[in-house]
UniProtKB/TrEMBL annotation:
Annotated SUPFAM superfamilies: NAD(P)-binding Rossmann-fold domains (SSF51735), TrkA C-terminal domain-like (SSF116726)
Superkingdom of origin: Bacteria
Protein name stated in the entry: TrkA family potassium uptake protein
Stored Pfam families: TrkA_N (PF02254)
InterPro entries according to UniProt: NAD(P)-bd_dom_sf, RCK_C_sf, RCK_N, Trk_Ktr_HKT_K-transport
Domain RCK N-terminal intervals: 8-134
UniProt-listed GO biological process terms: potassium ion transport
Amino acid sequence: MKKINKRFVLIGMGAFGIEVAKSLRNNNEDLLIILHNDYDNSKDTRDGLITLKRLREMGFEYLYETDTTNPLALKKHIKSTDTIILSHGKNFETKLLTIEALKELGVEEIYARATRDMHAKVLNKMDISRVIFPEKQEGKRFALELINKSVKAMDEVAPGVFICEMRIPKEFLGESVRKLRFRDQFHVSVICLKELIPTGKFDDRGEELADEKVYIQDFRDVTLCKNHTLVIAGGKDRLKGVTDLVVKE
């Protein structure tokens, strides 16, 4: 069977869409960006946050502007096998009509960004792949990091399951992940080890720049030092038992 190359199509563009587009491009994914423009409407319904010209200046190649609520207009650019990410933020009605147009074309994998709770509820009833609520998710993540100041980053990846990046407590220095027996002692899993490697270069403030190296395999016998951080996963209370060791210093 011939393998079908996956293509991602971003419809609508704002800060969220730009970050998604950059990440897909940086991972060498096939990407098409479409901005909405209802040419027959007297009102300005264009994606006003960013223009095709600006996107070209940012290095994006495959760009179109069309009425995304019109199945005939979309059919010129969209395939039923495409993965669609709807990033409209300005006009919710446009997003709903675009989803209907995509379904008429037989598109099955559709992700839509929500900006309000009510919008999320409506989108969830439209039988799409997933509703994305970046502001809400980022707000929860930021609150977790405020509460747990001993960690560099923290997120809830599933109900009751958290992942965080923590600095190395003094009592762990000179030890290894294997010797510390995280699962037995703390009932958490170590996902990876990160290391900051000084570059010998300095920024405008005179602070030395560093490259980050991530060890996903073969890190359990590495001797832990101050330049390391650990990414660990587990229940909230279990993680707190480990990260509190940093707070006590």
